[in-house]
Amino acid sequence: MTHFIDRRLNPKGKSLANRQRFLRRARAQIREAVQKSLKDAAVADIQKDRKIRISTKGTKEPRFRLDPRSGGEHDFVLPGNKEFMPGDEIKKPKSADGGQSGKQAADYAEAEDDFEFTMTQEEILDIFFEDLELPNLVRTTLTETPSKTWKRAGITTAGSPTQINLIRTMRNSFGRRLALQRPRLTDVEALQAQLDALETQAPQTEDTRAKIGALKTELAKLEAKRQWVAFVDPIDIRFNAFAEQPVPASRAVMFCLMDVSGSMGEREKDLAKRFYMLLHLFLKRRYDRVDIVFIRHTHDAQEVDEQEFFYSRLSGGTIVSTALEKMLEIQRERYATADWNIYAAQASDGYTQSGDARRCVEMLNDDIMPLCQYYAYIEILDEREMEVFASEDSGAELWRAYRTVAAGWQNFATKRISKPGDIFPVFRELFRKTESAA
Length: 438
Known about the structure:
Structural class: alpha/beta
CATH architecture of the largest domain: 3-Layer(aba) Sandwich
Strand content: 15-25%
Mean pLDDT: 77
Order of helices and strands: HEEHEHHHEEHEEHHEHEHHEH
Shape: elongated
Distance between the termini: 55 Å
CATH class of the largest domain: Alpha Beta
Radius of gyration: 36 Å
Helix content: 25-40%
Number of strands: 10
Strand order of the largest sheet: 7-6-5-8-9-10
């Protein structure tokens, strides 16, 4: 009795390559749905479970099947039928209004609703932050922030066809064939040559015919054993294994500079705090040991803790350069450039004391930008100002001054936001993973 052993890694009717493409397509749909869902949401809502809706078209895995129309027409009656006979044709249902055009409720048409499911806050954060990173992060010393990469981790018996290890596979195949004494091809060819030589002899004696019969029997045994002991069996196949391992990565510090002066109304402060909440969440989730320094300023700058930074109601005059001075002071005391990657994110409404913008430009060009891996300036405007300052070359005094800095430094970015819906797109644009880093 013949026994068939199914050692296929993929179930019947499935394809590993098709499944991988399906998963990539479904993940892309989920990522798009998550970003659309969060577009106008509050930053605090990003940490809540959310219902996500995607089209059912993308949830079905592709597969090959026979076309039912290729075998001709088939007449059949489904179980439970009390109305139709074989050969009857089902009439097209009429619309409720007698065929008139226009939007009406569909009484007969059937369709699948979009697939809706709930994603946990962990899954949402993984999707939202997966293609973001701190720009220009480089290794400086061996006191690292833990980072992970894929490393070779030996050999495994399961894996993707692209990761097959040919040397180990053929070594296993050779050992199995040797242990099971699989006939060599040269032995089979030698017997076949002897058989051909005897069959061409004339006249053939009884002894010759007996030898021919014995050779045919032996040749059949060798061929049967060669088929039974395969050249390469699925149990021989080995794959290269990979595992995540920590690799050295530099320590980083992010300076968060926020204007809380009197020119910043409650609306502007709320938008700035939302941006910094998202930045804080991103850094804490993606990097285990990144330091965050919170600096708020009016006419004077202070380093504060997280609670005071986000919830204090302090107000006053406006001198932006004091925040830059405080940042430099803290950097020189605690964060040497030989050991740390320096980042900064500044939020302001663009208004400062007369002449202070020039002082800010001098400090940025001479002292801060040579130390920084990346500096992001976010200007908070109202929607009317956003329309007035449609061009990037126009704006408040601080914006125009910072544009001159951006022209001279590739790692200096300037963006504007005027409503909560701008926060997520601007954040993703500022911290999008570059191709070189990816």
